[in-house]
Structures are given as structure tokens and as C-alpha cells.
Design brief:
By secondary structure, this protein is mostly helical. The chain contains 9 helices and no strands.
Length: 210
């Protein structure tokens, strides 16, 4: 099993990423506001299935890659750090847009809601980078199976993202009204997330090679 410190650090990254607006969040919030929380939750099931596919694919792929290429860890480490810095900039850059500023969507049936959530997840570059560049930083072949560790960290990402997105879906309307009345809160939230992601990026880039 991974160390507790690694589990906590990865949980923070997963939390920071799910709270940074991306295609999944925008779609789920838009769907929830336009069609109600049930529609948002059905869409979320499709999103989570996309996570599972990424997790399984990455777990087997990383096992082969890290055993075959000695410096794969370093390449992925710096790539992940750069991506976290990019996310930090997206959070604090001038003119950033709140995901709660959405347009109405047409009414869709459950099957289409599920499919759209699934496709949005599969085509989300943020999730791809999470599994390809970020997750490997926390895997240490010296402490056990790379495959098992991949599933443990992937499970954490799925749990954190699924839980946070479900809470956002259930309260999307209330949050939207709250943010409209308190625009300063949006700025503070963006800077907190940006600082967190940048700090994690620096820690990742300066971490000694395993």
C-alpha cells in the first residue's frame, strides 16, 4: 500500500483538479441547472464510467511503461508539474469564467444524458493528463505492485471527483445564485485553487527521483 503522505497529497491534487473548472464540471452544472439534479446525476454516472476506463487503461499501461523505460518516471513527473502550473494559471488568469455562468440545454432522455456524460469524460484532456502524467508520480515500485497502486490512486480520484461533482450537482442552482450575489468569493476561490495547484506542481518537480 502507498504511504499515507502520498495518499493525502494525491487526494489534494484530485480535489484541486475537480474544483478547477473543466469540460466535466461545465457540462454537469449546465445539465443540472437546465434539467434538474436527477439529470445531472445520470450524466455523472457516465462521467464516472469514463474515469473507470481511464483508470484501468492507465494501470496496465503504466505497469508496462515504468518497468520498460527507466526514466519514464522523470518524464511524467515534469510533464505533470507543467500541467498543474497550467491549471493554476487557468484558475487565476484575468477574465476567467465561472462554470456556473452557463447556457440552457435542451431536454434529453436518460440514455442520452448518460452517453453525453461518458463522452465528455473520455474527451476531457484534464482526466487524461491526471492518469498519464500525475498519477505515476505517486507510484513507487519499491513498495509493491505498480498495478495495485494504480488502482488505489485511481479509486481515490474517482471517489473524490464523483463525490464533489454529486454535491455540486445537487446544489448547482443555489451555488449559482450565491456566486452571482458575491462575485468576490469567486475571485478568492480561484486564487486559493491556483495557489494550491502551483504549490503541488513545485513539490512534484523538485521531488527526488524514486
Amino acid at each position: 500500500m502507498p504511504e499515507i503522505s502520498s495518499l493525502l497529497a494525491f487526494t489534494l491534487i484530485a480535489l484541486g483538479m475537480v474544483l478547477t473548472p473543466g469540460p466535466n464540471m461545465v457540462y454537469l452544472i449546465s445539465r443540472s441547472i437546465a434539467q434538474g439534479p436527477v439529470a445531472g446525476l445520470i450524466s455523472l454516472v457516465g462521467v464516472v464510467l469514463g474515469f473507470v476506463i481511464y483508470m484501468v487503461s492507465a494501470a496496465f499501461g503504466l505497469t508496462a511503461l515504468m518497468l520498460a523505460v527507466p526514466y519514464a518516471y522523470d518524464v511524467l513527473r515534469f510533464g505533470g508539474a507543467l500541467y498543474l502550473l497550467w491549471l493554476a494559471w487557468q484558475a487565476v488568469r484575468p477574465g476567467g469564467r465561472s462554470p456556473f455562468q452557463v447556457k440552457d440545454l435542451p431536454f434529453d432522455r436518460p440514455r442520452k444524458l448518460f452517453l453525453m456524460g461518458f463522452l465528455t469524460s473520455l474527451l476531457n484532456p484534464k482526466i487524461a493528463v491526471m492518469y498519464v502524467s500525475l498519477l505515476p508520480q505517486f507510484i513507487d515500485p519499491a513498495i509493491g505492485s505498480v498495478l495495485t497502486q494504480s488502482f488505489v490512486f485511481g479509486g481515490i480520484q474517482i471517489f473524490v471527483s464523483g463525490t464533489v461533482n454529486a454535491l455540486i450537482i445537487l446544489s448547482a442552482g443555489s451555488i449559482s445564485v450565491f456566486l452571482m450575489r458575491r462575485p468576490t468569493f469567486v475571485v478568492v476561490q480561484r486564487w486559493v485553487m491556483g495557489t494550491l495547484l502551483a504549490s503541488l506542481a513545485v513539490k512534484m518537480a523538485t521531488e527526488a527521483r524514486r
